[in-house]
Amino acid sequence: MDQLWLTIKFLLLGLFQGLTEPIPVSSSGHLLIAQYFLGVEIEGSNSTFALLVNSASLIAVLIVYRKDIKRLVINGLSYFKVKNEETKRDFMFVVYLVVATIPAGLIGVLFQEKIDANLSTVVTVSCTLIITGVGLWLIRNMHGQRKDGQMTMKDAVIIGCAQAVALIPGISRSGATIVAAMARGINQETALRFSFLLFIPISFGGAMLSFTDILNADNLAEMAVPYTVAFLGSLVATYFSLKWFMNIMAKGKLRYFALYCFIVGPLVLLAWYLMN
């Protein structure tokens, strides 16, 4: 029964992470909150488990954006042989993705352990959720006009720095990058696409690390089923949540996520206070 209950808890964690990964409310923050209130203490590294379920989200993003990825790869490589407006647009889009990946990559390598040790708390998340809400509220009525081919290197650097800030639990990665892109006058469709394609390289490295750590874990036999269930739950939940969020973005209703953050942040802090 204990093993069954543990598996159910991990399924809930996977579903919770998957549902919140695409939407701008911080999946890492919600995963930490869920672990706290479900009473789940993960033997080893919490960040390893977070990377595992993020890997499942990565697969879902790859499935949803498979056509865009295929086009970018083909046109990006074709640019070296055939230089036209279309190949240049996609080649530069790839370049901007690479540039935007660098800030989070560097900060993650240098400071991720310190961030996990000092900021992975329910109190931190409750406060940073409110910060995420403020960012979403400020750009709720923005409707940029710039498309893929009109992005600049400055856009890539700013969006990349926003993704780096989102290494702090409770700061939504998708929220921070979308806010930064839309604040730069980029339209909603391009902001969303760039944000989730930017998710791919930063998550790929984490996926390799998480699988290595889990395969070398002493409790692998005991945790194989809970980890697998959490992984599958996150994959399925991310896929449907992302499809839903794409529809929400098209309708320009980001204010609802801002309001959600404004409500959940204080409620989590209150619940934590009452429990302590």
TrEMBL record:
GO molecular function terms noted in the UniProt entry: undecaprenyl-diphosphatase activity
Compartmental location: Cell membrane
Broadest EC class assigned to this enzyme: hydrolase
Membrane topology, from the record: Multi-pass membrane protein
The protein's Enzyme Commission number: 3.6.1.27
The protein's name: Undecaprenyl-diphosphatase
Domain of life: Bacteria
Cellular component, GO annotation: plasma membrane
Extra remark beyond the main annotation: Bacitracin is thought to be involved in the inhibition of peptidoglycan synthesis by sequestering undecaprenyl diphosphate, thereby reducing the pool of lipid carrier available.
Pfam families: BacA
Transmembrane segments: 44-65, 91-111, 117-139, 191-212, 224-242, 254-275
Alphabetized UniProt keyword annotations: Antibiotic resistance, Cell membrane, Cell shape, Cell wall biogenesis/degradation, Hydrolase, Membrane, Peptidoglycan synthesis, Transmembrane, Transmembrane helix
Organism: Planococcus massiliensis
Function recorded in the entry: Catalyzes the dephosphorylation of undecaprenyl diphosphate (UPP). Confers resistance to bacitracin.
Main location as per UniProt: membrane
Gene name linked to the record: uppP_2
Family: Belongs to the UppP family.
A biological-process GO annotation: regulation of cell shape
Catalytic activity: di-trans,octa-cis-undecaprenyl diphosphate + H2O = di-trans,octa-cis-undecaprenyl phosphate + phosphate + H(+)
